[in-house]
Design a protein that fits this description.
- The complex is a heterodimer of chains A (138) and B (315).
- Chain A has 138 residues and is α/β, with parallel strands linked by helices.
- Chain A has one domain (6-137): Rossmann fold, CATH 3.40.50.280.
- Helices cover 48% and strands 17% of the residues of chain A.
- In chain A, strands 2-1-3-4-5 form a 5-stranded parallel β-sheet, sandwiched between helices.
- In chain A, helix 4 (97-106) links the parallel strand 4 and strand 5.
- In chain A, helix 1 (19-30) crosses helix 5 (118-137) and helix 2 (44-53) packs across helix 3.
- Chain B has a 7-stranded parallel β-sheet, with helices on both faces.
- In chain B, helix 1 crosses helix 2 and helix 2 runs antiparallel to helix 5.
- The radius of gyration of chain B is 22 Å and the shape is globular.
- Chain B starts with a helix and ends in a 5-residue tail after the last helix.
- The chains are: A alpha/beta (138), B alpha/beta (315).
- Strand 2 (34-37) of chain A pairs parallel with strand 3 (91-93) of chain B, so a sheet runs across the interface.
Chain lengths: 138, 315
């Protein structure tokens, strides 16, 4: 029996800059995870439904349009509504310093902007999933 | 735990279904119990498989067929398989990207699976995931295999009807004659049929069909489609209906299912034996029980293996 880590890599909103999301998706694949890549211009509702159906452990969101303060809290709110707030939410892309704490307060696990080593992303995900597993078990 | 999840599934909770699918996919120790619990309640839903080379348009085709199945009042479960890396165990599961039209549709449940070491085109537990979808009330199951060029016949063990999806660039006559996935088709689809070479491809397939002998008497038809432009979908559905009707009229539908069940039990049996053998290695049972005798020439490797098999307790 193995518990593969499943990550939805999502690009909500209207920007079409998916290079970062692709780099992360590819890096997580190489770290042994199953990455569900859903493509551009997803609504928060679509992302949450995907995460539910795919039993994702993690939703990794990439936004470069500036709409992060609208879209990311919306995703977290929808997860709560579905009683799925245990799904770990990560933020990436262009997220200004002054918004970071607000997003972390809203329930984002970690924000990893440009320049983050992809191996760090994989490590943070593995730690977070392990921690979550222990929390659910206890 | 399982009880609670099964109850939630009956109430239409997608996450509970997804959770149980993961348990099945992860080969949790609860897997046999889960299947035993749901099996009496299954409806033996129709299962249609789509296979063919990478990029042929299998996901796009499924995406465009979903509304047609829905119009007939069906709820559809889609199992989309993509390859797992043999090097890292990771996978990019990207079939959903073609099916985003149905992301918010309660009547469509899409689950992506990695092959996780299986080489037959489907994931090891795809069949069992289909059972869970059946239990949850999805009354048509669509399987989409990994992109398979020439081999990968799991789909014929799992589906009541198999469509092999090709593209105009799929090669000449000799490619269509080769053994492998071309033999699996109940229906051929030439997708992207607006491209050059589509007619040639259709003729190659039909030429091959004419040269073939089909035991059941069904001669696989070829349907031209352009999934992205919604062309050919009705024709595909018509051919699918004709095929299913033919199978049922001639007792072939049941026959195929019986054969599939025999293979399924056989596969599970093989799996159980493989695990026993593995544990014989892990625990050192082989070494403890027979090694010395073989070294002293009191036994030999074949006799020893047969003995171990007969007295499985020592495994």
């Amino acid at each position: 029996m193995e518990n593969k880590i499943r990550v939805v890599v999502a690009k909500p909103g209207l920007d079409g800059h998916d290079r970062g999301a692709k780099v992360v998706a590819r890096a997580l694949r190489d770290a042994g995870m199953e990455v569900i890549y859903t493509g551009l211009r997803q609504t928060p509702e679509q992302i949450v439904q995907t995460a539910l159906q795919e039993d994702a452990d993690v939703i990794a969101i990439s936004i470069l349009s500036g709409a992060h303060m609208a879209l990311i809290p919306k995703i977290i709110e929808l997860l709560k509504k579905e009683e799925a707030e245990d799904i770990i939410v990560l933020g990436g892309g262009i997220i200004p310093e002054e918004d970071r704490d607000k997003l972390l307060d809203a329930g984002v696990y970690s924000i990893m902007g440009p320049g983050t080593d992809t191996r760090d992303i994989a490590r943070i995900i593995k730690d977070a999933v392990k921690e979550r597993g222990e929390k659910i078990a206890s | 735990m399982i009880d609670a999840l099964l109850e939630k599934i009956k109430n239409g909770n997608p996450r509970a279904l997804a959770r149980l699918i993961s348990k099945v996919e992860d080969e949790s120790p609860e897997l046999p119990e889960i299947i035993a619990r749901i099996y009496p309640h299954l409806h033996s839903t129709l299962r249609v498989g789509f296979t063919g080379p990478p990029g042929a348009g299998k996901s796009s085709l499924v995406n465009k067929l979903l509304p047609l199945f829905k119009k007939r009042g069906h709820r559809i479960g889609v199992i989309a398989v993509d390859p797992t890396s043999p090097f890292t165990g990771g996978a990019i599961l990207g079939d959903r990207i073609r099916m985003i039209d149905h992301q918010l549709d309660n009547d469509v449940f899409i689950r992506s699976m990695g092959t996780r070491g299986s080489l037959g085109g489907l994931a090891q537990r795809s069949r069992d995931v289909a059972k869970l979808l059946d239990y949850a009330g999805y009354d048509i199951i669509l399987f989409e295999t990994v992109g398979s060029g020439q081999v990968g016949s799991d789909i014929s063990k799992s589906a009541d009807a198999v469509a092999v999806v090709m593209v105009p660039e799929g090669g000449d006559f000799v490619q269509t004659m080769k053994a492998g996935i071309m033999e699996l088709a109940d229906i051929y689809v030439v997708n992207k049929s607006d491209r050059d070479g589509a007619n040639h491809m259709v003729r190659s397939i039909q030429g091959m069909v004419e040269l073939s002998v089909f035991e059941t008497g069904w001669r696989p038809p070829t349907v031209c489609t352009q999934a992205n432009a919604d062309v050919g979908m009705d024709e595909f559905m018509q051919k699918l209906d004709e095929f299913i009707a033919y199978q049922k009229e001639n007792g072939l539908f049941e026959k195929r299912r019986r054969e599939q069940l025999i293979m399924e039990v056989g596969d599970i049996l093989q799996d159980l034996l493989r695990r026993q053998v593995k544990s014989a290695f892990d625990t050192g049972a082989i070494e403890d029980v027979v090694l010395e005798k073989i070294i002293k020439h009191e036994s030999d490797p074949y006799t020893a293996a047969h003995e171990l098999l007969e007295h499985k307790t020592s495994l």
